[in-house]
Amino acid sequence: MKSVGAFFYIGFSWLLAHSPRFIFYGIADFVCFMLYRVLKYRKKVVINNLKKSFPKKTDDEINKITRKFYRHLGDIFIENIAIIRMSKKRFLKMVDCKNVEVLNNFYQKNQSVIGIIGHYANWEVLTVLALFTPFQILSVYKPLKNKFFDKEFYNMRKRFGEIPVSMNDTFRTVLQYHRDKKLSILGLLADQRPPKGSGNYWTHFLNQETAVFLGPEKIAKKFNSAVVYTHIDKVKRGKYEIEFTLLFENPSESKEYEITETHVRMLEEKIKQKPELWLWSHKRWKHKREPGTPIH
Prior knowledge:
Elements (H helix, E strand, L loop, with lengths): L2 H15 L3 H18 L4 H11 L5 H25 L4 H7 E3 L3 H8 L4 E5 L18 E6 L5 H12 L4 E4 L3 H10 L4 E6 L11 E5 L2 E5 L2 H9 L2 E11 L2 E10 L9 H16 L23
Parallel strand pairs: 1-9, 2-5, 2-8, 3-4, 3-5
Antiparallel strand pairs: 6-7, 8-9
Helix pairs in contact: 1-4, 2-4, 3-4
């Protein structure tokens, strides 16, 4: 990004971070209007994904979810621009960690944790977690092509002590922490679309054949890290709750694909409860299963 554009973006981010709530979400409403009504940002993708995921819903029901989704998308768009320059006090008012003891119990047992996350609600608020646990938080991310925005989001994620880890460095980083006997929570967005032809696991998810990364299961078994599903709920506008559900205490004892199926079903159930909070604009089902590839 050119220096002038970067200057204005940083200024806008600072103003948002310090603006009253009615201005903050008034701007979010404007962003929603632009994305939904004017630009129609990936609207066909959103509606197509919803119709295939919920074939029994009427067009009116699909349209209602779509409108709610774009309103939520406007919220997280503005929230994430502001978070990096938001005061700790204001940020903490946005987020409640309901039962962080689920994680901290494993610290007492000297066992690391894999935190499974989905693109649900606002996953970026998890940067606050480093303030509530003695674990070192390692958050896996995919670097952005734009260097300015990549740095912005990198700094946002590390502001409270979290360490962002590039996807390509994930295993190497976890291995090093294991060798150094440092306890960590590895945060993995497990609902991303795997690269085509990468030999991933295929299952049914939201009424569709879906490829799923096996990385979370493989890493959990390799290092016997406890597997915890991390659910972020949007209880009202500008207020999120984080809740942790223990899925596997001893992953090395689990059956093949059991971990993968369990966290996929957990996310699926959460999406069905509040579908507008998932990232429907993502081209999740772009790749199709090759003939002969098994599906579970």
